[in-house]
Amino acid sequence: MNHWKETAEILARLAELKAAGRRAALATVVRISGSAYRRPGARFLIEEGGDTLGSVSGGCLEADVREVARGSVLISGRPSLRHYSTSADEDAVWGLGLGCNGLVDVFVQPATEGPLVILADRVRELLAGDAPLALATVVEGEGDIGAMLLLESDGTVRGTLGKPELDAPAVEHARSLLQAGRSGVQTVAGRGLFVEVLPPPPHLVVCGAGDDAIPLVDYAADAGFRVAVVDHRPALLEKTRFPQAAQLAQSRPQEPVDLPPAARSLAVVKTHSLAIDREWVRRLLAAGVSYVGVLGPRARTEGILRDIKAGADDAERVFGPVGLDIGADGSRQVAMSIVAELLAFMAQREPRHLSERQEAIHAV
Asked: Do residues 54 and 42 make contact, with C-beta atoms less than 8 angstroms apart?
């Protein structure tokens, strides 16, 4: 979900650069093995003046990628696939001697000219919506390097990889990955094809627009959630208070309100009114929301569940007190603990110290 937000921000910046007649290159992680800081699909925009947006690592690859972009790709107009080794062996191909024991492939392509420009506006439109999409890019092989096509959720195909005999199997491959929700590089018709699937971000419904909701909305939006804030008090629903919220809705729990689809939503209830919190929990559970976080002590949440006569299945979807046990104090730290729990829930991970994890951090 972070890639959805990152891609939207980068494409918006690309539109500004193109309008101003300035050039830029785009670097994308297309394949990883072993330890890696970012997953395939992570993007890094490099402007000809040196400004950047996004990242492809924790900072260890960006200097070389920036040099490749400005010193080669922007000058020649030709894309470049870089193979980085983060092992301790500095003699490896593009070895960095970092001791991280990972392999990262980064594809660097012109971003303000070429195939990406043709598809960029339509991709931006799709990223403002709520449907998945897939982007296929030729990253290896003879000819057509950098050619791209877009597969939309309704089956519409835009762009071309250069030849009909390549487009047909590529679209079929992209369709299978779109259905599975996976990204990856595979050889198709003799070319290395990176297909990135971008599923739409999950929605977070925050019931309660008090001051302590402000950092929660900011942090959740930064993490990639599409946030809706609902409250019955219109004075609290000011855009200046929640600039990153996708939706501000005035409503009580018993009133009709257009909320995001429950199947792809999580919710946090924090109006600081027991009666109103109770009714929001009742409504959200009835709608089928899979995660309903409730602010406040455990006894308060247990009382709400008794009052609404929640069954065992419903109670399992309620997280109260909401957030991870990290010793949080104050609204900002509590917001951090809540967003951390939301991320763990979405990733289906049991929160623990990374030092206790034996497998690679980004292992599926």
From this structure: yes
Q: CB 210: neighbour CB atoms within 10 A?
A: 17
DSSP strand pairing (43-47 vs 52-54): antiparallel
Is residue 213 packed enough to be buried (19+ CB in 10 Å), middle (13-18) or exposed (0-12)?
buried
Q: What share of the chain is helix, strand, coil (3-state, %, to 5)?
A: 35, 25, 40
Distance CA 144, CA 312 (A): 57
pTM, to two decimals: 0.88
Residue 164: predicted pLDDT: 87
Give Cα 359 to chain centroid, integer Å.
22
Q: What integer pLDDT is reported at residue 99 of this predicted model?
A: 45
Q: Which pLDDT value is given to residue 362?
A: 57
pLDDT tens digits, residue range 116-148? Answer: 999 999 999 999 999 999 999 999 988 789 999
Packing angle between helix 115-127 and helix 2-19, nearest 10 degrees?
130
The alpha helices in the chain, defined as continuous H runs, are 2-19, 62-68, 74-76, 115-127, 164-180, 213-223, 274-287, 298-307, 312-315, 331-347
Question: 3-class SS at 238?
Answer: coil
Q: DSSP letters along 70-94, please?
A: IIIIHHH---EEEEEE-SS-TTSTT
The whole-angstrom distance between residue 100's C-alpha and the CA centroid of its chain comes to 24
For residue 155, list its beta bridge partners: none
Q: Which of 217, 233, 241 is nearest to 334 (CA)?
A: 217
pLDDT in tens, 264-320: 999 999 999 999 999 999 999 999 999 999 999 999 999 999 999 999 999 999 999
- Positive or negative, the Cα torsion across 144, 44, 80, 41? negative
Q: What is the pLDDT of residues 339-359, one digit of tens each?
A: 999 999 999 999 988 888 777
